Amino acid sequence: MLVHSKRLWLLASIFLFVGVFSSPTLNFQYHRYDDLSQYLHDVAAAYPNMTSLYSIGETLRRHKLWVLEMSTAPDSTLGIPSVKLIANIHGNEAAGREVLLHLIQFFVTNYSCSETVRWLLDNTRIHILPSLNPDGFEVSVEGKCEVGPGRENARLVDLNRSFPDYFQNNTKPRQYETQAIQDWLTNNTFVLSASLHGGALVANYPYENFMENTDMTQPYPPSVSPDDDVFRHLATVYASTHPTMHLGYPCNNMDREFQGGIINGAAWYPLIGGMQDYNYIFHGCVEITLEISCCKYPLARELPALWDENREALLKYIYQVHQGVRGVVRDNTTHQPIRTAGLKIEGRDSYFRTTSRGEFWRILLPGTYHLQVHAAGYEPQTIKFIVSPKKQKEHITTTWLDVNMPPVVRQATVVSDQVLLLTNLPEEAPMQHSTTTQKMVGVTNGQKLSPTPFINVTATSMDLVKLSNTLDAESHDRREQLPFMETAESGGTIQTNMKHMFVVLSVNFVSVLCMYLHECTKMC
Ligand SMILES: [Zn+2]
């Protein structure tokens, strides 16, 4: 036994020895695209159990958008939240790009000697995209503190103005880089995010745009989001940990002071098509913008100080993903996870959804909340919970909720003795303002379903919910319940499953549709 232990110790020592001497070095200098790529590949090769490298897309100049994921949590562990950090969306704002490379170096070289690093990597998946605009960076100029070449991408488009915008129609065409971010967010669930910029010293949070009819006389009012308390907290955590950001000093005479080193984005200057509003509104990911240096592209000799100023702030910021609520949504009979269930904290008009494994997360400050959960084919649930201000050791705790959803027994309602219109709710959760396609899958004559062609009706899911609510109020007295699954089996014409929830639309709406549908008109 003793011999066996000695062998293990020897193997571990050799592994550590090889790891230390094969770990890549990182100097305080700017890394052009090839050097940055090489460094990330070297890290991924040296720390295969801690990191993985992937690309989310390619730019016009064929530069890959590299992301290094760092985590030691097993893939099978449920509830591990994902954080992403992005720099260099403006190619000439270069300090954040190097700061994130040093953050990578810090994590991979301190796992065995820093409890903070170990805890974060054991309990978090951290995705780092050091440069979202490598094409712009390649033409930008070191030492250029104000406006200079390289802010935009190779098509001369400002990437932080080219995302879909909820408040106003953004006519700017999608860029490779913005599309890559959109796909990344669609295929992954990120809970917390930050985008690092330069040219000011402030933490800026959503919203960064207003409704079109807002009075735009200066000073601009804040454009307040439903999670304003959370955003202000996150921005304050960063600014107050940074040695000077919290002082709120402007970088030049043209700018304003920032109380506490934070500011609402729209109150500073409103913009259309920004990335942080897009993250929050379209994907439920909480992102803020960190302006970390007065000079957009400071000289390389300033990089050690910049790294020192931002290291603790970044670590504390990542920690915030562990405050709030998380859990798993499951079918209460099969215990299978429910994917893309829609979730909402009561009183906060912002939505998020479960992963393919039924997981969900939401950053919340201490307090008492109600979680509302909706899933196609299940009875909606509302669950009261408390986010405790208490911490375990030095680590922030999260409230864990197991949400068990009872399947809906009756899935359709007859609204007249002649017509039943069935509409699939979208596969996706009812995210705010998403547009989806509903399908009319059948009409019924009395109790018997008859086949009908599929008809696509485009509507927002919010519209659908409103319509459904209206119908519930208006037609309560004259409708009767129809056990849909039984009818579908007897009719044999509708292919569906329990995850589809069916919503009955009003007879008036059916009549309008019938005017356009030959099949339907015959039956009406
Ligand atoms: Zn910027």
UniProtKB/TrEMBL annotation:
Entry superkingdom: Eukaryota
Catalytic residues of the enzyme: 291
Residues in the signal sequence: 1-22
A Pfam family the protein falls into: Peptidase_M14
Entries under CDD domains matching the protein: M14_CP_N-E_like, Peptidase_M14NE-CP-C_like
Record keywords, A-Z: Carboxypeptidase, Glycoprotein, Hydrolase, Metal-binding, Protease, Signal, Zinc
GO annotations of cellular component type: extracellular space
Entry cofactors: Zn(2+)
Gene Ontology biological process terms in this record: peptide metabolic process; protein processing
GO molecular function term, any single one: zinc ion binding
Record-annotated Peptidase M14 domain positions: 29-321
Family note: Belongs to the peptidase M14 family.
Name this polypeptide is given: Peptidase M14 domain-containing protein
Source species of the chain: Cryptotermes secundus
